[in-house]
Design goal:
With 416 residues, the chain is α/β, with parallel strands linked by helices. It contains 14 helices and 20 strands. Strands 7, 9, 10, 11, 12, 13, 16, 17, 18 and 20 form a 10-stranded mixed sheet that branches. Strand 4, helix 4 and strand 5 form a beta-alpha-beta unit. It starts with a strand and ends with a strand. Bound molecules: L-homoserine. The site of L-homoserine (HSE) has 11 residues, from helix 7.
Length: 416
Amino acid sequence: MVNIAVLGYGVVGSGVVEVIKKNRHSIGTRAGEEIKVKKVLDIRDFTDCPDAELMTKDAEEVFKDDSISILVETIGGTKFAYDFTRRALSSGKSVVTSNKELVATHGPELLKMARDNNVSYLFEASVGGGIPIVRPLNQCLAANEIIGIAGILNGTTNYILTSMRKEGKDFGEALKDAQEKGYAEADPSSDIDGVDACRKIAILSSISYNEFVDANRIYTEGIREITLEDMQYAKEMDSKIKLLAISRRYGENIFARVTPVIVNNSGQLANVEGVFNAIIVRGNAIGDAMFYGRGAGKLPTASAVVADVIDIVKHVESNSNNVWKIMNENNIVNIDETESEFFVRLKVKNHEGAEKLVKSLIGDVEKVVLQMDFAKDEYAFKTDVITEKSFKGFIKKLNQSDVIEKVANTIRFFEE
Ligand code: HSE
């Protein structure tokens, strides 16, 4: 029998206890030994808790219990989670987590600590909820050089964008609904501002390129500025708006960004709806492989955590061989040097003047016309491929012009 402890009895932590109880027999068969939750650490009081007999508020009861060999860290954040993880790894206990903030921030140190202590630090559930992606990258695709990753990595924002588009809900209503369903982070700004997706693409990139890609250096935008009007234009272009995390390897250089993008309906990612996540991995041997499934929620995420626990039970030796080198800062390409096609929506005072100005600044553009009331005083178009730096200069000039009232929005296009 293998005893484990769960640190943090929130959505995922309670899900882990539930999955282990529910699937006790099949889990035991697969692991080769029965897996038992011996303690659950949480400082909160829970009324009507089905796991009351396991609860403790005293961390020492977990750390000083030599019969507990694996800790599931589902506390989240970096404060207590970081100290507890270090303490566990350095005292010979393996750790499994769904905590992307901790992995994205302290991954190199914690992986090294696990290896040095011959224990494991596994985090399948930190990206893509229930979708297997960390292990496939580390193992099944290990023969490939990974050239790029593109994914919808945040269920909450995909749920919000889908509800806005399909049901005409406003942003606030759709967010509230996502929170009630348990998809959103405690602080929803990390979802809607793209921070959660940024941490996840940082983790996937670090695994793929075997070098630590620092989330703080990834250009990130969220979905707060996306409106129902933008969605109407996207529809007119036979496309949808998605929050996409992208990472590419160019020789020695790496580029990563998280932004809303316009995805053509013919692309696979355009059809990923609601809370679902999808990740396309491009390898130099396999070509494109797509991973799809529920990217958030109690039981899908818990299932990924428990799979890591099973993996550790089956492989007593450390399987944290993946140590991320801290890379040279210059290897991360600055967003200004990258190129995109952009959708631009202008509120104009003078249509003809605006068209002439745009043409004089960036040449011919592809006009997008909507027969809707709100679009009457707008000039919307798609640019050719342009560098971010030139685009910023272009927008600055538009903002200074007296034929334009304001730049209503700009959104990049995604090319698979
Ligand atoms: N808040 C996250 C999401 C949960 O919506 O994707 C899973 O990491």
